[in-house]
Amino acid sequence: MVTASSRNYGGSSPNAGFQGTGEIAASPGRLASFVTQVLAATGASKVDIVGHSKGGMMLRYYLKFLGGVAYVSTLVGLAPSNHGYTVIESRNDEVVTPYTSAFLSGPGVTDITVQNQCPLDQSDHLELAYDPVAMADMLNALDPSDPVSVPCVPVVLPVTGPAGPVPPF
Q: Measured in Å, how far apart are the chain's first and last C-alpha atoms?
């Protein structure tokens, strides 16, 4: 299994500073090409994918309409504006409202609210992608055989980001 990461889809160009503005239907096609390249280069049969915000919706489109379900082992959504398999969300999300609309029920689905694990954590929609609680949950979803502990420290503040050093995993 291979984890594909550090990709942006949906900007005016792949290197544009601002991403997530393009047509949803165009981004999954670029993702499909990238997944094909990763699988060919590594010999892996499936990938793990993490999507934040619109990236979660785009990944679901890839799975549902472009056959991505055959190539994806685990999908983790961080504050997705649609449903995923493991969904990590914040009660303070000001984009996906109500925050519970990011969640999905059914077999094989795990819905996680960061404040249920750490009431001190005040991360919102944007900070969730940098939040140590969410990152620990993401790592645990991607590799449940080697769990990391979930920290509970008030390092993420709404809108402003980390208030101090982020604890190592």
A: 21
Q: Is the pLDDT of residue 164 over 80?
A: no
Calpha distance 23→20 (Å, rounded): 8
Helix (H, G, I), strand (E, B) or coil at 110: strand
- Is residue 66 situated within a structural domain? yes
pTM over the 0.90 mark: no
Give tens-digit pLDDT for 88-119.
Answer: 888 988 888 889 888 877 777 889 999 999 99
Chain Cα centroid distance, residue 158: 19
Residue 72 falls within a domain, yes or no? yes
Report the CATH number at residue 79. 3.40.50.1820
Is the four-CA dihedral 123, 125, 131, 137 of positive or negative sign?
A: positive
Lookup: tokens for 64: 């549902």
Please check whether residue 168 lies inside any domain of the structure: no
CB distance 51 to 78 below 8 Å: yes
